[in-house]
Design brief:
Layout lengths: L2 H12 L4 H23 L17
């Protein structure tokens, strides 16, 4: 583990983030999980699909 992570953890232990910041982080994670679940179970819309461009054979 990087020593800078230990310093960051000790800083968070002494000065924890506010409740609003924790809620914001949880909301962002929930939105990401919802988007992933939608794409995984339902599928991406056609306009988001990647079309491979095939080069003509010379």
């Amino acid at each position: 583990m990087n020593p800078l992570w230990l310093l960051r953890m000790s800083k968070w232990a002494r000065n924890p983030p506010s409740a609003k910041r924790v809620v914001l982080g949880l909301v962002v994670i929930a939105i990401c999980l919802a988007l992933f679940a939608y794409e995984y179970f339902i599928g991406a819309p056609d306009w988001m699909e990647i079309e491979r461009i095939r080069r003509p054979k010379s």
